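User: Fold this; tokens only.

Assistant: Input:
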Amino acid sequence: MTDTSLILIVDDNLLLQRAAVRVLSQAGYRTCTADDGRAALRLARSEKPDLILLDVVLPDISGLEVCRQIKTDPALTGCFIVLLSSTHVDSSSQIEGLEGGADGYIARPIPNDELLARVRGLLRIKQAEDRLRESETRYKSLFENNHAIMLIIDPDSAAIIDVNPAACAYYGWSREELLQKRIDEINTLTTEEVKSEMQLARAEKRNHFFLKHRRADDSIRDVEVHGGPLILAGKTLLFSMVHDITERKRAEEEIQQNESRLRRLVDILQHSSETIQEFLDYALDQAIQLTGSKIGYIYHYHEDRKQFVLNTWSKEVMAECAIANPPTCYKLDKTGIWGEAVRQRRPIIVNDFQAAHPLKKGYPEGHVQLLKFMTVPIFKGDHIVGVVGLANKETDYAETDILQVSLLMETIWKVTERKQAEEALWKSEKRFRTLFEQAAVGVSLLETKTGRYVDINQRYCDFLGYTLEEMLDSKLQAVTHPDDVQTNLDNNALLITGKIREFSIEKRYIRKDGRVVWGNLTASSLWAAGEEPETYFHIAVVQDITERKRAEEALRELNATLEQRVADRTRRLYEANAQLSELDRLKDQFISRISHELRTPLTNIISYLDLLENGKPEKRARYLQVLHEQAALLRELIESLLEVTQKSVNAAGVHVAPTDLNQLATSLLTEATPRAAQRGLALASALMPELPF
């Protein structure tokens, strides 16, 4: 493999400089040249060559000074320098050059192959040193800059040999303070136990340890240590990498507690309970076991009346309690420390119940003795709905007990409410099913979009003449009269869009036997306003109105008959009235004409009566004769007039007389009643006595 290292040749002798360039270039090396010391320094800083062949004697700065400046420049660390001299160099000059930082000395003249061999050897050494330096830098960086806690320990003396900054930050001591300590001052194990563990690590029998370490603030932390032997300067030391697992341990413990709580919760949920009371009794027993308590209780709390109502005491309480007829209801203001969970709206722990406490009000004689006590409020939203109390745990109650009990009881309370809701729902469904099955009308549950019957009662089936199975395999479109299907579907669509919540229509159905029947349909949606369920359902109630429809049709026919007869009677009255009007007109005309004929004899009679009274006596006989003639003429005219009038009235066939309208209406109803009765109808009248004749 060709070595492409860069070599800087510094020589003011151009012949020697070019000769060296030619030899090295042919060997595959890259080269650059400088004629004096200042040029050499510039090229060294800009090109950073791997090797510098540096003539000791230069025109401006000596080669030894150039070597010193390069070796003291941090930017040029790792640059190899070989001093060249064309004159005999004594050992003291070589020593001066090597102490100035030179990595070698070559005296001229030197054969080309020896020059190349020297160069190759020096470059191999440089490359090895570069790798070592890189490794040291990398591992130093890993040790110093690593966020993991690292320590180097002497297994023989337990002394701490080295620590990284992360260790200082974690333990809280400075590096100097840590280097003055032994590991057994940090490890909580005994000195012998620490020594035994270190020997196991030294022999590589164990390299993974779980320990507890003490920090500067005296806190004890759980740590996980990975350690193994490390040889430095021929001595076996222990390299330890420390990880704080305190939070992980707490999390693991919490997980274990959560697993225990979840197992108990699963047991509670799977527990077969016939009543909610039995379910809560079992839940309380599980809460007692979860916390390691001896006794416990659950009270319901009613915020509106500030009252506790006992739900359950643990069996141990009832066995130890010697109070006769213990109360089951307590007012909040009458409770002692166990009521503080409600008053302060937070859990209360008393780990020394026998000690005096300002909130304690004592308990009656015969009460179970309490040594340690914890009470936790149960919340539903912002409201306290219950409290659970636990007592007489072997160790002190802690926040973890509060957390576990709170989570457990919160879930139990939700399950209890769900069971109560399920029980109420079961009762409601039972009532609904009873109403559904025993209703005096047809009731069905349908898919609103498709019209498919999902459930239906027997009365509905009887109404349409189908079996239950046939109806559940059918749709409303199949049993609805074709002329009424679209109206029904249009109303269903309005239900789905939310424009209406219910509708009521009268529609025709087609029975299985083909007969058409009428039903009064009332439909109501079963989804909440604004809701968009996957499937829309509605309840439909149908009342058979076929007979009513038939009666209405018969009544319409009867009304039509009566209206026609009244119209006929009215028409005949109008015709009679017209004839009467014509007779009146003729009569007036006749009277007008006859009046002249009547006036003439009357005038003559009056005149001759005057003559008879005041005229000549000898003419009275004549006057009387004329009077008799005129009177006879007048009587004849009157009799003729009466005869004509009578004949006219008889010819018209009209009998004019006062008419009672109420009596006329009663007569018509009496005549129509038998026909109405034949069709199942009953007729009634509302007469108005004040109607005029």
